[in-house]
TrEMBL record:
InterPro entries: ICL/PEPM (IPR039556), Pyrv/PenolPyrv_kinase-like_dom (IPR015813), Pyrv_kinase-like_dom_sf (IPR040442)
Gene3D superfamilies: Phosphoenolpyruvate-binding domains
Protein name: Isocitrate lyase/PEP mutase family protein
Organism from which the protein derives: Lichenifustis flavocetrariae
Superkingdom of the organism of origin: Bacteria
Keywords: Lyase
Protein's UniProt keywords contain Lipid biosynthesis: no
Molecular functions per Gene Ontology: oxo-acid-lyase activity
Pfam families: PEP_mutase (PF13714)
Record has Transmembrane helix as a keyword: no
């Protein structure tokens, strides 16, 4: 199937809302639901694959593998978190080429020092503005596909205050970023002002439990945002469901309970692709009639 163009959606004034897809079970379920865009979160893909925090521990190679697997699995167009670009300018160039070849529609790079931290946790530090400006220029020059968009994220709200974050965001827009992402805004007033001040499409991060007020897609569009990611929703929902199921199991010794809904096993087999496996077996397995 043909995946949506993020560039075209933004050009047409469509508000783009992308939930985080943290693992491949979630990916196949999202295909059943039907999504146009999805977000590959560094936090949640690191947590789901390795059980580790988003603190610059996962490598470029590990994250590229996860992102490429998600792009192959999910029907939606993937917007991908590439942390700091995994190093200096040469690393940024390599990262953009790798993520683009994997098939993402947008690559997000942030201005934190390495090792980075989750945007809604303490102890973040940012690089000089000029260093990030150069990363954006390199990222824009590295892409081969004009459909690939570069998202520039600033984490300077915590370190430099709102005005400092805005100065950086304006510089990143001037450097050529297609989308600007002021991370961890702390009030609706800051959210509205950031949209008013920036002359490029602005992205919001609706991180459940984070510093930024959660607002609906319609509310964010009215504020002036062009797009929003909801990176935590599926990961937190899955964690809550698993905790509920395991707690029940520990207490009762069974997987069956009216209080713990289970996804239909047959339907899941269909989603994960067993229909093709069984069709292959019917055609090629020894001793199996063609019409079995």
């Amino acid at each position: 199937m043909s995946k949506r163009s993020l560039k075209q959606a933004l050009a047409q004034g469509e508000f783009v809302a992308a939930p985080g897809i943290h693992d491949m079970i979630t990916a196949v379920i999202s295909n059943k639901v039907g999504l146009d865009f999805a977000y590959a979160s560094g936090f949640w893909m690191t947590a789901s694959a390795f059980g580790l925090p988003d603190a610059g521990i996962a490598t470029y190679t590990q994250m590229l593998d996860r992102v490429a697997t998600l792009v192959r699995t999910v029907d939606a167009s993937v917007i991908a978190d590439a942390d700091t670009g995994y190093g200096g300018l040469l690393n940024v160039h390599h990262t953009v080429r790798g993520y683009e070849e994997a098939g993402v529609v947008a690559i997000q790079i942030e201005d934190q020092e390495f090792p980075k931290k989750c945007g809604h946790t303490p102890f973040k530090r940012v690089v000089p503005t000029l260093d990030m400006v150069e990363k954006i220029r390199v990222a824009c020059a590295a892409r081969r596909n004009p459909e690939t968009l570069i998202i520039a994220r600033t984490d300077a709200r915590q370190t430099d205050g709102f005005e400092g974050a805005m100065r950086r965001a304006e510089a990143y827009a001037e450097a050529g970023a297609d989308i600007v992402f002021p991370e961890a805004m702390e009030s609706e007033a800051e959210m509205r002002e950031s949209c008013r001040r920036l002359n490029k499409p602005v992205m919001a991060n609706m991180a459940d439990g984070g510093k930024t007020p959660i607002r609906s897609a319609a509310e964010l569009k009215a504020m002036g945002y062009a797009m929003a990611i909801y990176p935590s929703m599926t990961g937190l929902a899955a964690a809550a469901a698993v905790e509920s199921a395991l707690t029940m199991f520990k207490a009762t010794g069974t997987s069956e309970s009216p209080d713990v809904p289970l996804f239909n096993f047959g339907a899941f087999n269909h989603l994960i692709g067993f229909d093709d496996v069984w069709a292959f077996e019917r055609k090629w397995a020894r001793g199996t009639p063609d019409n079995a």
